[in-house]
Amino acid sequence: YSATIRGRQDVDIYPLVGGTLKQICVTEGQTVRQGQTLFIIDQVPYQAALNTAEAALKAAQAGEATAAMNYESKKKLFAEKVISDFDLQATYNTLLTAKAQVAQAQAQVTNARNSLSYTVVKAPSNGVVGTLPYRQGALVGAQMPQPLTTVSDNSQMWVYFSISERDLLAMVRKNGSIDEAIKNMPEVTLTLIDGSMYEEKGRIESVSGVVNTNTGSVQLRAVFNNPNGILHSGSTGNIIIPSLHENVLVVPATAT
């Protein structure tokens, strides 16, 4: 069966913030680990925004401290019946307003810190770096038409192929259900584009529950380990499924 090979996880890398691409930390085809830095976007404006937010937080905290002192002072005056209940409540409301301003300033600091951290674009998973269409100095952002790169997890490869609806029906009838059919399927072999046989055996993991109305076929997915990195996402090949027959007569090919 004709097959298409895909990485276990192909992740398009887009930046969450915009700015000038200051540094490219990887090369095309490089193997990266999860959390490894891929790109660095200009951090100056985001660092300035964080500094501003932290200064605003300190001012809000000072305002809260002043409001708290005023409230404590008013409570003592109220206990001595120097001020009215209205004055005490007004002072308490001022304290609540100051507390809300502190919470708002803290949220702004969190947002600014997150935006600064987003300037360092890291690998979401282990894999291999794809093409790098942007160069240092390019203006990038979340709405770019093309990702910064693609990280393909090629430790295991997913191989997609299709079988006919007739074959699927025969499998279900023989095993009772699709799940049982998948469980009882033998290991499959992958033939590469150059005609060679891939050394690792694969196993079928899933069967699509929808029949393609145009082709009358159903898509299956097999998984192959890729310890040596021979398989690449986007490649093609052929899946060979052994057909097992019991209690039959075997006729030599030369005789037929």
Outline the secondary-structure elements.
Blueprint: E1 2-13, E2 19-24, E3 31-32, E4 37-41, H1 44-79, H2 85-118, E5 120-122, E6 127-129, E7 139-140, E8 149-164, H3 165-175, H4 178-184, E9 189-192, E10 202-207, E11 217-225, E12 236-240
Helix pairs in contact: 1-2, 3-4
Report on this model:
- The chain has 256 residues and is α+β, with helices and mostly antiparallel strands.
- 34% of the residues lie in helices and 29% in strands.
- The strands form two sheets. Strands 1, 3, 6, 8, 9, 10, 11 and 12 form an eight-stranded antiparallel β-sheet that branches.
- The longest helix is centred in the N-terminal third of the chain and has 36 residues, at 44-79.
- It is elongated.
- The two termini are 25 Å apart.
- The relative contact order is 0.20.
What average pLDDT do the residues reach? 91
Largest sheet: 8 strands, antiparallel
Order of helices and strands: EEEEHHEEEEHHEEEE
Estimate what percentage of residues fall within beta strands. 25-35%
**Overall helicity:** 25-40%
The total of beta strands comes to: 12
Structural class, judged by helices and strands?
Answer: alpha+beta
Q: First CA to last CA: what distance? A: 25 Å
Radius of gyration: 32 Å
Number of H/I helices:
4
Shape: elongated
Low-pLDDT segments, ≥5 res: none
